Amino acid sequence: MRHWTYGLSGNRPPQSEAEWLSPDAEQVRAALGDGAVTWAVEVGRDIAMRISEKIPALADEVNAMVAIRRATTSTALRALIMVAGLGESEDSLVSAEVDEIARDFARRGMELDDLLRTIRVGYAVLAAAFLDAATLLLPPTESSAELRRISVLLFEVHDDFTAGAASAFIEEQSAWAAGVSAARFDLVNKILGAEDIDRAHAEGVLGYPLTGPHAALVAWSGPHSTRDLRTVVDAVMRQWGAPSASLVLPVGLQTVWAWGTVVPGSSQKRDTLPTFDDAFVVVGQVGSGVEGFRRSHAEAKAVERLIRLRPGQIPCTVAHEHVALEVLLLADPDAARQFASRLLGPLAQDEPRMEDLRLTLRRYLDLDHSLAKVAALEHISKNTVTYRVHKALDLCGHAGETTTDLRAALRIHEWLRGGRLASS
């Protein structure tokens, strides 16, 4: 009789899952099928979501949450191998992904208690997922014994899992605390947190003047990239004029924060910024003094969150000055989606005809209602522009004189569906 885990399946339609999969996925796929892999990916997602809810310090660190999801998916796959009896008796839940997350917590200046709490939160979700699945797939006459077996098995490996992660954390913390980077990172976090600092002392530790004016940059790469992200900083900063000084800090997994001191009036026109095949770069607006240092970084982080909302995750370089309105409109993504859906109605449907109507309407509104300019831009007649605009307005039920809300809804919808970036 086949093991009950052959009946596992996911709740979502099939999609690319390569970003979350560890080498263990192929063992599970070969033995239990695609459904079991999808189930494990969804359990990994659920664990990561619960961690973000329970550990607020991690929720805003998007790159860390991506890495955590890879680790939680790896743990779900390894636990599935154990429960299904596919591995050896000495197999462990600790994986390279879990080890790296533990080290990342140390690099971020977090405490061991933060790591242990994350493990407790995640382990509860993992255990519940297995117990719920077994209850659903097994007949009542068999489920009690299997539920007990799963509980004992997960309990037995819990200590080794926690000890392995804690050991990696402590080892990395010791190395990190001994370095200059730790002092700089701690000091930068104090500045960003608006704590009182001795500016002269801070400039000595950082090797960077805090008087400004500054432009802040955040860069990150995908899990398989080998790029040294420090190499992208100068190329991008030169668009604001050659920086007279720069500060570059590695932050956790495959991320750097950077600041450059720019010379007023030396910047060039920035309609197009340099892009990289395997790196994302976002830049805040220029600001002066400690407050400008802090604000420019906050703007760069806001653009990072905005980029993460887009489908596809294609590497790009985006400046806050090019997407400042989108940053405001999408500060609350769920509310923005509801707003756009309510305003656009059927016009928001994902089909070519609606896309044409939205594009013509958006250009018509952006070009001061000029039929001639839209017709020339789209290579169609003015009558066709008139028809498309009226049709689009009818579909979204717009009858008022002001179009401010409608223009905002179109901008939100365009961003969330992955429309063209203004500067990449």
* β-strand amount: 5-15%
Largest sheet: 5 strands, mixed
Principal-axis shape equals flat
Rounded radius of gyration (Å): 25 Å
**H-E order:** HHHHHHHHHEHEEEHEHHHHHH
Q: Helix amount, in percent?
A: 55-70%
User: What is the helix tally?
Assistant: 17
Q: Work out the oligomeric state of the chains in this entry.
A: single chain
The unreliable regions are none
Which class best fits the helix and strand makeup? alpha+beta
Strand arrangement, major sheet? 2-3-1-4-5
Total strands: the figure is: 5
**End-to-end gap:** 56 Å
Short description:
The chain is an alpha+beta fold. The protein has 17 helices and 5 strands.
Could you explain the architecture of this structure?
It contains 17 helices and five strands. By secondary structure, the protein is of the alpha+beta class. It has a five-stranded mixed β-sheet with strand order 2-3-1-4-5, sandwiched between helices. Strand 2 (245-250) and strand 3 (255-261) form a beta hairpin. It is flat, with a radius of gyration of 25 Å.
